[in-house]
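Supplementary Methods S3. Input chains for the assembly prediction are listed below.
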Amino acid sequence: MTQDPNPLTCEEFQAQLPELIGSGEKFAMHPHIQDCPRCRALLLDLKTIAEAARELLPIVEPPDEVWKHIESALRNEKAPDEAERSGE
Amino acid sequence: MVQAGDPLAFAQLYSLHKRRIYSLCLRMVGNVAEAEDLTQETFLQLHRKISTFRGDSAFSTWLHRLAINVVLMRLRKKGLLLISMDEAMEPASEGNPSRGFGASDPALSGSIDRMALERAVTGLSVGYRLVFVLHDVEGYEHHEIASMLDCSIGNSKSQLHKARLKLRDALRAYPRPEARR
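Predicted structure tokens for the full assembly:
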């Protein structure tokens, strides 16, 4: 592999990361990644976090009170409608 | 049947979707009482608006989007969304990894304790948490998030990146299971 004539510093490379990661492009072959173990480790960590996030999908049960409040609010919403229909 | 106003069908609908909606609200706001209130508000709005559901998308997608709008509206009312998006425009002073990442810093080693991640997400500021939850947990694209949060796509990407950096810092500070034995 040929040497990068204008190697980026870690700071310069990391400043590009939001765009690089968001682009969906594979940049494992980016010259800076090839040469920099710190930025390689950083990328691996960020990838691990993004993958772990997908496992945070719904598992939490709301307390029963939530449904009780919904039922009660629906009854209260309905009551004036019914009163209106019955001509009160 | 729900569209026709059948209360039993609505109860069944609640039962089917309550966990997903409550979890979404909880992750977006990071507060149990607020999440309960927002779940309630989402289902009340669902009851009012269900006749407008035309089946262009899956019902769960439609309801999910409704819940996000309820949460965002609440945050806007409180002025929190404005603050959080301003925050994203600031330079990542604390989140800049080039400062904190030395050769001796432990990497995450490809594994993350789920509870630690949950805790770290809750500890994020509102703006970071919203983008992280919407993108990495819920799977929305940057252009969709930008439209929901009324910000640019670049802003959404930048905020997501900063959120992940913050999470990484928090997770590295949290002892991993093998280290706690």
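Chain B touches chain A through 51 residues (CB under 8 Å). The domain at 1-82 of chain B is CATH 1.10.1740.10 (Rna Polymerase Sigma Factor; Chain: A).
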